[in-house]
Design brief:
Blueprint (H helix, E strand, L loop, with lengths): L1 H28 L1 E2 L2 E2 L3 H39 L3 H32 L29 H17 L4 H39 L2 H34 L3 H7 L1 H10 L2 H14 L4 H14 L2 H17 L6 H17 L6 H12 L5 H13 L1 H23 L16 H8 L7 H16 L1
Antiparallel strand pairs: 1-2
Helix pairs in contact: 1-5, 2-4, 2-5, 2-12, 2-13, 3-6, 3-10, 3-11, 3-12, 5-14, 5-16, 6-7, 6-11, 6-15, 8-9, 8-15, 9-10, 9-15, 10-15, 11-12, 11-14, 11-15, 12-13, 13-14
Membrane topology: Multi-pass membrane protein
Subcellular location: Membrane
Protein name: Sodium:dicarboxylate symporter family
Length: 443
């Protein structure tokens, strides 16, 4: 038992999610004497938890959007000179290319690949396992209101000097990141277990799994095409052999497959990027930055599964809505936190507000995303090497350590300690306040 627990701990969220899905499929399918091996009464306990967690997730989504998107827009707006802006623009362009390419492939292939796989008759959540009780947790604001508020405040913070409001949003971002890391992500496997257990009781889980296997094949092929396109552009821009450059980045790809973390892969990505002939200053600037803002692989994966679920469950989404979803998803990916599952958690608000997904469809999206998380991460970090080649060619040696990349050395904690005083209270006022405090103490 201890060895199993140790293996689950080392595997991270991916292993827990896969274990939850398999366990739900087994317990929901096996019957003894015509009765499920897991009694309905016990199943309703998990259904109750899933319902409560879904309510909490609905409450948290607008807070996640405000807490992540607002400071991200503010940081990119002020930036570290033009090269941060250029890198962010390239990352966003790459993300949009990934999204639109995936849209084109999905629109042309899924009608054939998913023919006869309609899941429109999937029963509503709770139809087999009803929750014992529910607690309404309405969000503070609507999702679209949260997005608009994030844009307005983020742009405003980028235009005014740093002050108390910026400090507040940096602290709020830290709170939201901890909320995702410590509460939402750890409880996701239990939530997914409850959702899949309910689907298994209704007899729909296996049909869903068979459908998603076809989508996985398309997604993995798309990841290869995306990387090929990125390195072809980088090869043309930097006059390098794109195949050789891509092969050089394979250690980063394989490392990301094992860690499922862009941040943990940075040392390997940095080393391989330098071996591709990128200058040390440019590599040190672009690789850590792109590990946060360049999520082309994640964008492709989220869009493909969203399109598949919408297609198979009869959700009417127009072409204009899909295009808007891609643009908004690109912005959301820039703001996504660097934690396992952070990208899909940041995108859940768009899935519900722009595509009309319900809680079961969102849970399905989360499960499928995390199941392929390592492949998306590997595509993300490998693509960072291509962007580094392009930036290195464009910069032509104008990026130096301590120069244009100075913003990357910004210490937010030191800023939090000083921002409430620096720039707001003069030294004379501080001296007068100290003198006044001393006289009051003496009195």
């Amino acid at each position: 038992m201890s060895s199993l627990r140790s293996a689950l701990s080392r595997g991270g969220i991916l292993v827990w999610v896969l274990a939850a899905i398999v366990l739900a499929l087994v317990l929901g399918s096996v019957t003894i004497g015509g009765r499920h091996v897991l009694p309905v009464g016990v199943g309703r306990v998990f259904a109750t938890f899933s319902d409560l967690f879904s309510q909490f997730l609905t409450f948290s989504i607008p807070l996640i959007i405000i807490g992540l998107v607002t400071p991200a827009i503010a940081d990119l707006g002020r930036g570290a000179g033009k090269w941060l802006g250029v890198t962010a623009a390239l990352a966003y362009t790459s993300t949009l290319f990934s999204g639109f390419l995936t849209y084109l492939v999905c629109a042309t292939t899924f009608p054939r690949v998913l023919a006869g796989s309609s899941l429109a008759d999937v029963e509503e959540p709770g139809s087999a396992l009803e929750s014992y009780f529910t607690v309404e947790m309405p969000p503070v604001v609507e999702v679209m209101t949260a997005l608009l508020l994030s844009f307005v405040v983020g742009i405003g913070l980028a235009m005014v000097p740093r002050g108390v409001l910026r400090k507040g949003f940096i602290e709020f971002r830290a709170i939201i990141t901890k909320l995702i890391e410590r509460i939402i992500i750890p409880l996701l496997p239990l939530h997914i277990f409850g959702i899949f257990l309910n689907l298994t009781y209704t007899g729909e889980a296996w049909a869903i799994m068979r459908t998603l296997v076809r989508v996985v094949v398309v997604v993995l092929l798309l990841e290869v095409v995306i990387l090929g396109a990125q390195y072809c552009v980088a090869g043309l821009a930097g006059r390098r052999n794109p195949v050789k450059a891509l092969v050089t980045m394979l250690p980063a790809y394989l490392t990301a497959l094992g860690t499922s973390s862009s941040a943990a892969t940075i040392p390997v990505t940095l080393r391989q990027t330098r071996r591709n002939g990128v200058s040390d200053a440019v590599a040190s600037f672009t690789v850590p930055l792109c590990a946060t803002i360049h999520l082309a692989g994640s964008t492709s994966k989220i869009f493909a599964f969203a399109f598949a679920i919408a297609w198979t469950q009869g959700i009417d989404v127009s072409a204009v809505q899909w295009v808007g979803f891609i643009f908004m998803l690109g912005i959301t990916m820039v703001a996504a936190p660097g934690v396992p599952g952070g990208a899909i958690m940041a995108a859940t608000g768009l899935l519900t507000s722009m595509l009309g997904f319900d809680e079961a469809q969102v849970a399905l999206m989360i499960a499928t995303y995390i199941a392929l998380d390592s492949f998306g991460t590997a595509t993300n970090v490998t693509g960072d090497g291509a962007l580094a080649i392009i930036i290195d060619t464009m910069a032509g040696g104008r990026i130096r350590r301590g120069g244009s990349a100075r913003e990357q050395d910004f210490d937010p904690m030191a800023y939090l300690d000083g921002v409430s005083v620096t720039g707001l209270v003069s030294s004379e006022e501080l001296a007068a306040s100290a003198k006044e405090s001393g006289s009051q103490t003496a009195g």
